[in-house]
Specification:
Elements (H helix, E strand, L loop, with lengths): L1 E6 L5 E7 L2 E8 L2 E8 L7 H7 L2 H29 L8
Antiparallel strand pairs: 1-2, 2-3, 3-4
Length: 92
């Protein structure tokens, strides 16, 4: 797999990869990432087509997914913390 380019964005790191007959579009936002893969014949086969695919509407949906991912992570952490409260022995 090799990097064929980057798509400029003010808050996301967007990397385009090529691996044989597949193009991957990886979007990163801090601790989260999303990867979209395209096979040959899908209309996304090079950097120009990946850039066209990653339009404003797509990026908006990706950012919503990042928000959902963060919310899910925080809810998981809060459930874990609640469950840990009773794990310590009582000190007298």
């Amino acid at each position: 797999m090799r990097i064929i380019g980057y798509i400029e964005h003010p808050t996301l790191k967007v990397t385009v990869f090529k691996d044989g007959g597949r193009v991957s579009l990886k979007l990163e936002n801090g601790m989260y990432e999303q990867v979209y893969k395209f096979r040959d014949g899908s209309g996304v086969e090079n950097l120009a087509e990946a850039t066209a695919f990653a339009d404003a509407e797509f990026i908006n949906e990706v950012q919503k997914t990042f928000t959902f991912m963060h919310r899910s992570k925080m809810q998981g952490h809060s459930r874990q913390v609640v469950g840990e409260e009773n794990e310590f022995d009582e000190i007298i």
